[in-house]
Amino acid sequence: MRRVVFYNARINKWLRAPDMLQKRHFFGSCVINNCLYVAGGECEGIQRTLRSAEVYDPNRNRWSCIAEMTTGMVPSTGVVHDGKWFLKGLNSHRQVVSEVYLLASKMWSTTGNEMVIGWRNPSISFNGQLYSADCRDGCKLKVYNRETRSWTRFIDTRHHLGSSRALEAAAFVSLNGKLCIIRNNMSITVINISDPITVTEVDSARMWEAFARKGQHRSFMANLWSTITGRNLKTDIMHCQVLQV
């Protein structure tokens, strides 16, 4: 795929952006300095993983190529941390590989094994620290210690919800200084990192329902909810983003 669309919250519409330079699917993406970066993935008709990467600048409304990765991969997880974009995935031989894009030098480099071994999806860079799930439903979190170059247990909420696909943690997002764990069934756990003992479970169904009743949001939420859940209500969340206008 090359087609790109973006949501404009000011006019409540999805708009077309310029196509990517390279067709790709199963690629990694991130936002750095208000620019959209994509890297790796696969392309139909090409029997190998892609090394190419590109960036979209909304101010110029165009895509530009950036340095290629040293190894092609299909990313399984990625995070922007400390001004760097970390990616982890599988190469064409189905081996686990990892790369880091250094924004300062605009070049790719390999990453340390210590971080990669314990790094799993979802993860988030929050207040200068890198956090990762340590349990399938996100009830346990771990943090990466740069000094010891190891992952250590950060919190165990003791609110284990289960190991089903619906309860699997799909994304971490930061909202109002707190860490939100989003699961496939749209349930949310809110953790105050500065006071990890404080854990709040949010009845997301009621929250979405209440929001959807508010006038102009009604049709938008109906379409969004239908897109997210589908007819059988068994789809998985692929990405979650906090939008500030």
TrEMBL record:
Domain of life: Eukaryota
SMART domains: Kelch (SM00612)
UniProt keyword terms in alphabetical order: Kelch repeat, Repeat
Protein name: Uncharacterized protein
Record organism: Digitaria exilis
